[in-house]
Automatic annotation (TrEMBL):
Function statement: May bind long-chain fatty acids, such as palmitate, and may play a role in lipid transport or fatty acid metabolism.
Keywords of the record: Lipid-binding
Organism superkingdom: Bacteria
PANTHER family registered for this protein in UniProt: DEGV DOMAIN-CONTAINING PROTEIN DR_1986-RELATED (PTHR33434), DEGV DOMAIN-CONTAINING PROTEIN YITS (PTHR33434:SF3)
GO molecular function, one term: lipid binding
Species assigned in the record: Desulforamulus ruminis (strain ATCC 23193 / DSM 2154 / NCIMB 8452 / DL) (Desulfotomaculum ruminis)
Entry keyword annotation includes Cytoplasm: no
Protein name, as recorded: DegV family protein
Length: 280
């Protein structure tokens, strides 16, 4: 008889209540300062990271292989036979590759490792949908299929106050900056099929860039229904304003709201506003 577990990592940005309700196991990434090391969302918050910027900008690290294996081993001891392990884009972190390596050591279990090609709720929503599928007793294969289906439908767009932290963290990808920043041109950043950041559009000024996010959602939903998540990193007031406007759009079904975790905050700095669109 199948006993199936869902595993993800701390960049999924799902609320702890949701994680507990669906018994989703989370492997934390690391936030590293010269004299200290923290576990993402375990013993450090996004605000604590922002409060130390710009004088102190930490680095981040994928989970240790031993920690991943310990998570899987614990599930094996709890008599789980199958694991669906869904993780941050391989284009943004080495986590997916580390998890794939760990999974090979558990040959007595069926472990499906999935690259979300995303992060934040772009990862969290497929994880949640897989968990809901299991809750409906539809089984391992159906949950894997559902997660992959949702991954293919998700689009993420966001704006930052500055590209400095993305650049420092080596996550700049295909995002253009420098001259545009001097002119207050704000790139609308998205994630391509490789799971890497790129410039989707450019808008002059902060307010116009947030309005452009709303226009992107409106255009995407002109002929389709979708679930929409609004995300922020140290910009709650602006994000809540955007959320209220999103709720009034035609064809919006479920609406989610969340704050990005410390690891993503390291690479974006305070001021992120983002949207995640999952079309039906």
């Amino acid at each position: 008889m199948q006993k199936v577990a869902i595993v993800t990592d701390s960049t999924c940005d799902l609320d702890s209540d949701v994680l507990d309700h669906y018994n989703i196991k989370v492997i934390p990434l690391k936030v590293i300062y010269p004299q200290e090391e923290y576990l993402d969302r375990v013993n450090i918050t996004p605000q604590q990271v922002y409060d130390r910027m710009p004088s102190e900008t930490p680095t981040t690290s994928l989970p240790a292989l031993a920690d991943i294996m310990a998570t899987y081993d614990k599930l094996r001891k709890e008599h789980f036979t199958h694991i669906i392990s869904i993780h941050i884009s391989s284009g943004l972190s080495g986590t997916f590759n580390a998890v794939t390596t760990a999974a090979r050591e558990f040959r007595d279990m069926v472990i499906e490792v999935i690259d979300s090609k995303a992060l934040s709720l772009g990862l969290g929503i497929p994880v949640l949908e897989a968990a809901k599928t299991l809750k409906e007793r539809l089984g391992f294969e159906a949950a894997v299929e559902r997660a992959r289906e949702i991954i293919g439908k998700i689009e993420i767009y966001y704006v930052l106050s500055t590209l400095d932290y993305l650049r420092k963290g080596g996550r700049i990808g295909y995002v253009a900056g420098t001259l545009g920043e001097m002119l207050q041109v704000k790139p609308i950043i998205s994630i391509n099929k490789e799971g890497k950041y790129y410039t989707y559009d450019k808008v002059r000024g902060r307010k116009k860039s947030i309005l452009r996010l709303l226009k992107i959602i409106s255009d995407k939903l002109s002929h389709k229904k979708a679930d929409v998540a609004v995300l922020h990193g140290g910009a709650e007031e602006e994000a809540l304003e955007l959320l209220q406007k999103v709720k009034k759009l035609t064809n919006v079904q479920e609406v989610h709201f969340g704050q990005i975790g410390p690891v993503m905050g390291v690479h974006t700095g305070p001021g992120l506003i983002g949207v995640c669109i999952c079309t039906k």
